[in-house]
Amino acid sequence: MNSEYIDFHSHLLAGLDDGAADPGESLEMARILAGFGFGTVHCTPHLIKGGFDNPPDRVRRAAQSLQRLLDQAGIDLRLIPGTEHYLDEYLPELVSGALTVGSSRYLLLEAPFGSDGARFPAMVAQLMLRDLVPLVAHPERCRAFLPSAQEKGLRGALSLLVGRRKAPELEGSLLWSLKEAGCRFQGNLGSFAGVYGSEVRERALFFLRQGVYCCLGSDAHRSEHLAVMLSSGFEVVVAAVGEAAAQELLKGMKCEAH
Predict the structure, then answer these.
(1) Is residue 20 packed enough to be buried (19+ CB in 10 Å), middle (13-18) or exposed (0-12)?
(2) How far is CA 80 from CA 5, 62, 187, in A?
(3) Is there a contact between 111 and 120 (Cβ–Cβ < 8 Å)?
(4) Angle at CA of residue 216, ends 152 and 180, nearest 5°
(5) How far lies 160's CA from each of 42, 109, 132, 154, 164, in Å?
(6) Along the 258 residues of the chain, how does pLDDT read in single tens digits?
(7) What is the three-class DSSP state of 47?
(8) Integer angstrom CA distances of residue 258 from 107, 153, 222, 245, 252
């Protein structure tokens, strides 16, 4: 494997959300991620108002603390503090000073799984006007991004941002219109491994073949079965698009424009 691989989405930090339960599990997860070939891991706990309140300073301190433990244990991973921001009505008040993806303008977002996406266009437009680029996590798991989903008024909200290009399989969908507006999308390796079921797996493969994703992430929450999920998911991606394209996604090379 390749130490240039970057995990753009993980729940490695203990006790902040529904991820690692304690520092011991964080260390075991880190060993597995490093063994797979990741050299850099973005630590992205949930930020959900009233659910998981994780302001940037708390995440930074937790990442620094875990980095010390990794260094002491000889686990060769570079941790970058980040956040998985919940795309709801409270998001605009939480993005001032938010942790972006490293030094980029990307803001990692999680769309509510059951949402119809009606609010997304206006909220995405607000973020872009603040010079932030939405990086939407695991769209294959969200109902609003089903290939059959229509624009739902998207043109009006993003009319100044969208450039028209042809994408016959997805044209007219909410997902493709957001992509045309400048949003980027991160796929879960677990989705390709079938962790979330066959429908999500097939949707992830469809999006992969349509060029939707700019990067991949483990979205790791636990150490159990993590190694199998990573290797299985990677094998499926390689089988679908080839080794070179799979490595590009794991290195985030398609995200470098921002």
Answers:
(1) buried
(2) 14, 11, 19
(3) yes
(4) 35
(5) 32, 22, 16, 11, 11
(6) 567 999 999 999 999 999 999 999 999 999 999 999 999 999 999 999 999 999 999 999 999 999 999 999 999 999 999 999 999 999 998 999 999 999 999 999 999 999 999 889 999 999 999 999 999 999 999 999 987 643 333 333 343 344 444 455 787 789 999 999 999 999 999 999 999 999 999 999 999 999 999 999 999 999 999 999 999 999 999 999 999 999 999 999 888 654
(7) strand
(8) 11, 27, 30, 19, 11
Q: What is the token pair recorded at 230?
A: 């990573």
Q: Tokens 């206006």 — which residue?
A: 122
Let me know: does 83 contact 99? Beta carbons within 8 Å: yes
5: tokens are 């691989």
Q: How many residues does the chain have?
A: 258
Contact 90, 54 (CB under 8 A): no
Torsions phi, psi for 186 (to 5 deg) = -115, 125
The C-alpha atoms of residue 185 and residue 214 are separated, in whole angstroms, by 6
What residue has token string 């150490």?
223
- What are the chain's domains? 5-255 (3.20.20.140)
Q: Which residues lie below 8 Å from residue 245, measured CB to CB, with a gap of 6+?
A: none
Whether 14 and 21 have beta carbons less than 8 Å apart is answered as yes
Identity of the amino acid at 126? Q
